Amino acid sequence: MKMVSSQQRTIQLGNELSSTTKTHQIQKTNSINDSCHGHNSFSLIKDPFWKSVCLEMTDLMGPSSVQKIWNSTLGSYCSEADAMNLCCPTDETAQFVNQYSFLILGSLQRYFPAIKTLKTKVEYASLEVRQ
Fold it and tell me: What residues pair up with 117 in beta bridges, in sequence order?
């Protein structure tokens, strides 16, 4: 049977705590990096109005939501239909927008109080075949 002194137990406990602290620091760093990745997408958004909507979505749903919608573009506002068009690059993005349109509409209603509907349109990137 191996005897362990109190000093050795203290060192072992200190090493375990140090390991736990390092793990927590790594998790916190990964969380910050994920958040920053979402914020890097903001710099790619040219429309300041859409950028403000995306920033609000980040506050409401986190950076992963912005990664799904940031490359969409706001279209025209139709006052007769109280609707705004949103052009999405993929079907997946359009589905996400439709699922969470109430949150996006809430953000848009600060600027267009009468808006009732968000209409999504998928605009696929044209792929030209060169010979």
Answer: 83
> Residue 11 has what pLDDT?
53
pLDDT in tens, 57-112: 888 888 888 888 989 999 988 888 899 999 999 999 999 999 999 999 999 998 88
- Rounded to whole angstroms, the Cα distance separating 47 from 13 reads 54
What is the residue type of 111?
Answer: Y
Residues 6+ apart with CB under 8 A from 75: 84, 85, 86, 87, 121
Q: Which CATH number fits domain 1-131: 1.10.10.10, 3.20.20.30, 3.30.300.180, 3.30.1120.10?
A: 3.30.300.180
Decide: helix, strand or coil at residue 76: strand
Q: What is the pTM of this model?
A: 0.62
DSSP secondary structure letters along 36-48: HHHHHHHTT---H
With beta carbons less than 8 A apart as the criterion, state whether 82 and 114 touch: yes
Identify any residues that bridge with 73 across adjacent strands, giving them in sequence order: 87
Q: Is 4 left (phi over 0), alpha (psi -120 to 50) or beta?
A: beta
